Amino acid sequence: MKNAKLKYPATLLVLLFLLLAASGKPVFAASKPTLMVIMDEKVMGVLGTTSFEVPTQAEIRLMQHFRELGFNVVDPKTVKRNITQSKGLRLLEGDDIAAAAVGLQHGAQYSIIGTSISKPGGGKLYETQLQSIHATLTARVVRNDDARVIATASASAAQAHIDEVRGGAMAIDKAAQDLAQQLSGQILAAGVGTGSSAAQELTMNISGLVSYRHLDYVMGFLEKEVPGVSSVSLHSYTSGIAELGVSYAGKAAELSRTLANQRFKGFRLEPTHVTPNRLDLRAVLSR
Questions:
Q1: Which of 32, 35, 79, 250 allows an S-S link to 228, with CB 3.0 to 4.6 Å?
Q2: Is the pTM of this model over 0.70?
Q3: Distance from the Cα of residue 3 to its chain's centroid
Q4: Per-block average pLDDT, block size 10, for the chain (287 residues)?
Q5: CA distances (Å), 101 to each of 43, 88, 147, 183, in order?
Q6: Pick the CATH number of 200-285 from 3.40.50, 3.30.1360, 3.55.50, 1.10.3470
């Protein structure tokens, strides 16, 4: 009797699995990373003056779009409460390192940073009280592990309205929809949050190198001996510290394990910090 009781729930689970598979949707979806969204928004020309209002329409639209795609999104209000004004200005003005630092502080792997501004386009339309409100938005996506920009986009839109603030918010919302589509297209094309096995660009930092020959050993090993590595490029080498770009079809943790277990001539590599997009290693001399 006990087996009979378990039979039907198990059958229902199997049917549910088959229905999900037939729908074309993934039964077990790959987890997507966390995003931080910070937009500097202004609606200019309020009541025909130089005054402005600060809406949050672009942030709301971007957050909604990426949440619908399955991404986790940090609440911008929480971020703005916890950062100083000077740091906020730096990340909005193009300081990608500052943006990455703030994003990591709030548990985000990627940061969407940008500006949004709307202003009246001129006089009244067709002898009415309506006026054309124009909005322009720009944004960039920063990979917080290494402060690299992986996507950029801009969008604009116009809205006829009697009120500068309401019309400005509506114009911003229109442009933000376009901006969100552009950014998500570039992000997904880069394999972010898709669970794709396609090669991704990893940043590898190696410190403690005694000579350039040691770096050459590592680069040669990556290029010739490690499956999944399609290219290795040297970004910089100064005083025993090297930064490499590695195109790798796999997880950073797997690559760090491979390097940690490899015994190079005269030295080995000890991982000190590993994230999905970055590996920090230290060269240790062998005895």
A1: 250
A2: no
A3: 49
A4: 46 46 45 87 69 78 94 88 74 82 88 91 67 91 89 93 84 94 90 64 92 94 91 93 90 91 92 89 89
A5: 28, 11, 8, 21
A6: 3.30.1360
